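CORE FACILITY INTAKE
Project code: CF-77B
Contact: R.S. (postdoc)
Sample description: multi-component assembly, two entities in total
Requested service: structural model of the whole complex
Turnaround: standard
Below are the sequence entries exactly as provided by the requester. Do not edit them.
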Amino acid sequence: MPKKTGRTVVNVAACGALLLALTACSGGAPAARDIDLGPGPAAAGTVKKGALDGVTLTFASYGGIYQDGQETAAVKPFATESGAQVLSDGPTDYTKLKAQVDSGNVTWDVVDTDAIWAERQCGKLLMPLDTTIVDTSKLPKDMVGKCSVPAMTYGMVLMYDKSKFGANPPKDWADFFDTAKYPGKRAIPGVASDAAPGPLEAALIADGIAPDKLFPLDVDRGLKKLTSVRSSLVFWDTGARSQQLLESGEVSMAMVWTGRAYSAVKNGAKFAPQWNQFMPVSDSLAVPKNTKNPKASMALINYYLGADQQAKLTELTSYSPINSEAEPKLDALASEYVTSAPERQAQAIKLDNTWWAQNQEQIIQKWSDWLAN
Amino acid sequence: MTALIEIAAPASGRRPKGVGGRWGLLLLPALALLAVLFLVPLGLMAWRSVTDPAPGLGNYSWFFTSDVALATLVRTLAVGAVVTLVTLLLSYPYAYLMTVVSTRARIWLTLLVLLPFWTSLMVRTFAWVVLLQDSGVVNQLLGTVGMGPLQLIRTQAGVVIGMTQVLMPFMVLPLYAVMSGIDRRLLDAAQGMGARPVTAFLRVFVPLSLPGVGAGALTVFITSLGFYVTPALLGSPDQALISQQIFTQVNGLLAWGRGGAMGVVLLAVTLVLLGLVGFVLRFTRTRGGVR
């Protein structure tokens, strides 16, 4: 390289670095230590008035009616009360989050993410919860992680075609796998990059394992059972697709999220839920590591968990509230799909999120290989 | 389109004259843009493939020992080949028709190809989902003529249909560009010398149109290797193409090194194939004495 060009390159690089340094210094004021969230223990759903004047936060979630609901129920009221300016972004993307944390330029302050993923990334990409700011006393204990709180709850439920099996509905996951007694296609989640609770648990139960002896999961046995009905399986990769499969009547049974099941039935799908052995799941709220304003992020999470906010979120999205004191006003159909109701909880299968978090990486590899074969 | 044709057929004996003098400076902004937005990320990806998570060739040895990864690569190439062939078979007569009809009809034919081209890929793919699903329009039509519902979606066939529709303009346009430049009097001359119309077409027109075929086929094939949305929506996971596998590694497992290695392998395979095609074209041209 000629000398002159070399010098130019160095100059340009230096200017670039200077520019980066300048932009890094501006923004984000006031610094985290200046924030006073008031005395006493935090109470979910509250924030000190005007405590975050001049602070800008970004809330990232999955978009659609879910994020709209989150914004109306919690994020916008939080902004009004605290004085913070809250921006929205999304959809949540692990790659983007990793890039932000790795480069030290974190622009997402609170992120709605998958609960198991949050557990897995605790301390790596996500920072521990500050329990002096986030009040978790009204949340189900087993759903609160070290780095995350549940954002709402829903479930993986068995839906069946009423017009085909109305007289003799499938009773459990064993029936889901019984293609002789209940002919027709079955929809199950099938995202290669995201092995999640559902298909493996259902397969193992259908293969004769007692629901309370599921963990540690025998992944190979589960996959073998799934292989036995492979020709009847249809894989959905997004919630919208699962809903479309129910509405178009392409399948006679489906393993889908309760929110989508509700939307499909509301749109006229001739399906009904079998709540026996449904699997409760949740999204999680977490704060990325190296965020500019952790205190403000925690304050937003704490506000989000309030009973009123959770009730409103449920009314807007049909996901179930996570705060035990939330009392959403729902119409008859929507209340049929609330998973947090005690009678539903009694029918639920307990999932071991910690085990999933520890093993998910290996499972994703096996799962994506199985799917691709 | 000329540029594409040059890439496909570099052996015409004409070398582009060096971009002379000060006019060459006009290239600089484009080159700078390419360097910053294409070469740098590409280099970073290649670098990551040999450093993440540990320095060495671990990611590559993983790729070449993983049955699934290799099968996906082969499947991606096979789907690309099938799509290229189907696109060619559909586009050749179409482009030919464009050269023989009136100007007015030609405008319509061009619009017919370009309008879908200007529509979002996502929208078009969703439209195919609606059309091809078991209870979709296509299957209903098939039902009325007594053909049982066919499994069109979530199969390789569905993926090929969707990709073909998306890629057809890339075949039709270069074909038309070359065919419209072919002197029809050559065909008349061939017939005047006693050739039947079919013979004249096959022995005069088809060889002269080959540069267009090469350019179109190459563009379609290479573009098809990077398809993500269409196979994700119209195929099933067991028909996954390599871009979907890369997504799994990068997004699901945050294994950026492996994702990078897969990208580098795909790039290398593509370049090798490009080289091969260039070689074959040069060979057939010198032997066939075209032009």
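Facility notes:
- Chain B has a mean pLDDT of 88.
- Chain B touches chain A through 23 residues (CB under 8 Å).
Invoice: internal transfer
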